[in-house]
């Protein structure tokens, strides 16, 4: 998919929000209700299922009690009595998360979240995966919950790369054995690429790359090696790199760049390019 992508800030028009005066969004093809809500960019599919369970979602005026409902182009979907925004082409941003922020829309402990500190002109977004409160670096944000779900799946094959400062000592030989994967406390972690970059007093700086991104994976693997992580920075996610993006800054990925990384089928699925344009491009090849 080419090298790491450096992008500039986008100034596109934000998509409509729930409650704006507009017709209800229509599913382009039959799909489960939670998927339709995620496609509209309101939340992830999991959150949509929670909204349904809480009695917040209705189809054609009837409150839903199950996420098994399938909706199509003729159905009118509402959340809290308000129509879904019309489906817009997916948008994606790079965000440089600082330590101390929770990657959640609401935190039961009242800690500040990533979404509370985003610029006010940003549309509603969801994160592609999560970074825990003490992890910093690159976090991808998107208006499309289904795109987020696709990008964070291990089957997508995108490499997550981290710069890791650890206390302790380890050999490169021990790190190389991680390429075979490792099972810890009954959880199997896939192949991990790791190298020693430099020593810093009693600490080491490592670069660690993995494709799964399981909960606390880097820290658990470090503990397995007798190391303690004291700083963790994600520097890239697939083709998108943190680069010199300042801490706290968010920059939109150009639609053309995102389309190039997703390929023709997903580009059409997520509304990045009109189907007619894709067919014209295919005929020219």
Describe the fold and architecture.
It is a single chain. The chain is an alpha+beta fold and 285 residues long. The chain folds into three domains: 31-83, Structural Genomics Hypothetical 15.5 Kd Protein In mrcA-pckA Intergenic Region, Chain A; 92-155 and 240-263, Pseudouridine synthase I, catalytic domain, N-terminal subdomain (Alpha-Beta Plaits, 2-Layer Sandwich); 159-237, Alpha-Beta Plaits. Helices cover 21% and strands 26% of the residues. It has helices at residues 33-39, 45-53, 145-152, 172-176, 217-224, 255-262, 264-269, 275-284, and strands at residues 31-32, 57-59, 62-63, 70-71, 77-79, 82-83, 92-97, 126-127, 135-142, 160-167, 182-184, 187-189, 193-200, 203-210, 228-237, 240-241, 250-252. Strands 7, 8, 9, 10, 13, 14, 15, 16 and 17 form a nine-stranded mixed sheet that branches. Strands 3-2-5-6 form a four-stranded antiparallel sheet, with no helix packed on it. Strands 1-4 form a two-stranded antiparallel ribbon.
């Amino acid at each position: 998919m080419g090298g790491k992508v450096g992008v500039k800030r986008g100034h596109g028009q934000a998509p409509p929000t729930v409650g704006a005066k507009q017709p209800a969004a229509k599913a382009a093809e039959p799909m489960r209700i939670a998927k339709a809500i995620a496609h509209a960019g309101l939340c992830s599919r999991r959150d949509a299922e929670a909204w349904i369970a809480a009695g917040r979602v209705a189809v054609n005026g009837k409150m839903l009690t199950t996420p098994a409902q399938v909706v199509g182009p003729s159905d009118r979907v509402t959340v809290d009595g308000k129509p879904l925004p019309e489906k817009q082409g997916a948008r994606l941003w790079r965000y440089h998360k600082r330590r101390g922020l929770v990657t959640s829309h609401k935190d039961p402990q009242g800690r500040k979240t990533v979404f509370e500190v985003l610029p006010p002109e940003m549309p509603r977004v969801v994160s592609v995966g999560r970074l825990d409160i003490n992890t910093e670096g690159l976090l991808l944000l998107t208006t499309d919950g289904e795109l987020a779900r696709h990008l964070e799946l291990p089957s997508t094959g995108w490499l997550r790369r981290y710069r890791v400062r650890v206390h302790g000592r380890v050999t490169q030989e021990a790190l190389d054995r991680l390429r075979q994967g490792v099972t810890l406390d009954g959880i199997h972690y896939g192949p991990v690429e790791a190298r020693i970059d430099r020593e810093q007093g009693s600490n080491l700086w490592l670069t660690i790359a993995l494709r799964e991104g399981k909960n606390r994976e880097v820290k658990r693997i470090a503990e397995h090696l007798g190391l303690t992580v004291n700083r963790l920075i994600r520097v890239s996610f697939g083709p998108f790199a943190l680069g010199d993006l300042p801490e706290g800054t968010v920059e939109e990925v150009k639609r053309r760049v995102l389309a190039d990384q997703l390929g023709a089928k997903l580009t059409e699925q997520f509304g990045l390019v009109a189907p007619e344009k894709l067919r014209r491009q295919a005929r020219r090849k």
